[in-house]
Amino acid sequence: MAGVIARWVNLSLLVLYPVAWFAPLMRAGLLPLFGLSEISVMTGLQSLWQSDVFLALVVTVFALVAPYLKTIGLALVHFGLLGPRIKPALALLGKLAMADIFLIALYITLTKGIDVGRIEVAWGLYLFTFCILASLMISVLGQQSQVDRGISDQR
Fold first, then answer.
1. Of 35, 55, 135, 148, which residue is the least packed, with the fewest Cβ within 10 Å?
2. CA-to-CA distance for 3 and 107, rounded, in angstroms?
3. Residues 6+ apart with CB under 8 A from 123
């Protein structure tokens, strides 16, 4: 049953990840009198591409591409379109994926705040958090099912 749920949650991540990347994560402004600018994963990456191309490339690959490729690969395995031999490559992609680290950095930024301004949480941060936690849950369930199969094989 958990495998079926994990399969469909993983499939939903193929839609939810891109929505979360473009959704407003937070609103930031310098002074309370001025309007707040919405910040998303994509607007943050756009700013990074303008200031530091190498770092932007690294963040793009590890925070967006690797988690998404892992999600696609898991979906293909879940629906029998790829064999279990791909799982080591997916495990490697999971280790390279920095989306969870990116999320922690966002929370630190929110907690620390800006010295001369304010930051408000937007709905996209909750969606992005859900996507990361769901992906981690799917990975844990997948590892647990492998352990369970290994134990039953030994009996």
1. 35
2. 30
3. 23, 24
Give the mean model confidence (pLDDT) for residues 123-149: 81
Residue 70, φ and ψ in degrees, nearest 5: -60, -45
Backbone angles phi, psi at 24, to 5 degrees: -70, 120
Mean pLDDT of the chain: 82
140 in Cβ contact with 100 (< 8 Å) = no
Q: Would you tell me the crossing angle of helices 87-96 and 66-78 to the nearest 10 degrees?
A: 150
φ/ψ bin of 114: left (φ > 0), alpha (ψ from -120 to 50), beta (otherwise): beta
Query: For the residues 38-48, what does the mean pLDDT come to?
Result: 88
Tens-digit pLDDT profile for residues 69-127:
999 998 998 888 988 888 888 888 888 887 788 888 777 777 766 555 677 889 999 99
CA–CA dist 28, 92 (Å, integer): 35
pLDDT, position 149 = 56
- Other beta carbons less than 10 A from residue 133's beta carbon: 12
